[in-house]
Design brief:
With about 190 residues, this protein is of the alpha/beta class. The protein contains 7 helices and 6 strands; from the N terminus they run βαββααβαβααβα.
Length: about 190
């Protein structure tokens, strides 16, 4: 509630790799809708874009594509599960090179925030993953990471903005995502 007038351009990156599984991908989409229920989208304070990735990344919609919460919810409901390997590097690159551009709805003077939700460590382009996150952070894009069921947090810690303990969240199971909503949203404010 303290966020109602905060302006945010938000890009969410969702891991759709095979290890996620379709039922868990649907839980991620439900979490995203639940998370956005607090966001002031209809008055234009919060703009949302979504990228999903597995072997390749796929832009689902840009920051300037939808102006109402209902339109965004409908778009989220239509996001397909495209399983494959885990190419986090390309998803991060697309986020900072294509999503956060004025042409695609990024507003000057508005905070750029990325939330990455993943259950795995990169297995394609893994040497580029942390450098792509560093490139995004150097453009003042704040990155939050929600890691699910990870035993090794080194990669997600390298992706998240510093200090890591305020920007990286970890849960063991996908059904624990719903409990993260207020924790992550209060961090955004």
């Amino acid at each position: 509630s303290g966020c109602s007038d905060t302006q945010i351009d938000l890009v969410v990156i969702l891991d759709a790799s095979t290890s996620v599984t379709e039922p868990n991908f649907k839980l991620m989409l439900e979490f995203l809708k639940d998370f956005l229920s607090i966001a002031d989208i209809d008055r234009g304070n919060v703009r949302v874009g979504v990228v999903i990735y597995s072997t390749k990344d796929h832009i689902q919609f840009h920051l300037n594509q939808y102006r109402s919460k209902q339109d965004i919810y409908n778009a989220i409901d239509n996001i397909p599960y495209r399983f494959g390997s885990t190419n986090t590097a390309d998803a991060l690159k697309t986020m900072h090179r294509e999503m956060f551009t004025q042409r695609n709805g990024d507003r000057p003077g508005v905070d750029n925030i990325c939330i990455l939700i993943t259950d795995g460590i990169s297995n394609i382009n893994s040497r580029r993953t942390i450098p792509e996150a560093e490139a995004a952070r150097s453009k003042n894009i704040h990155i939050y990471v929600i890691g699910i069921g990870l035993t090794d947090l080194r990669e997600v810690d390298g992706i998240a903005s510093k200090p890591v303990e305020e920007n990286r969240f970890a849960v063991q199971e996908f059904d624990e995502l719903s409990a993260m909503k207020n924790k992550v949203f209060s961090s955004l404010c």
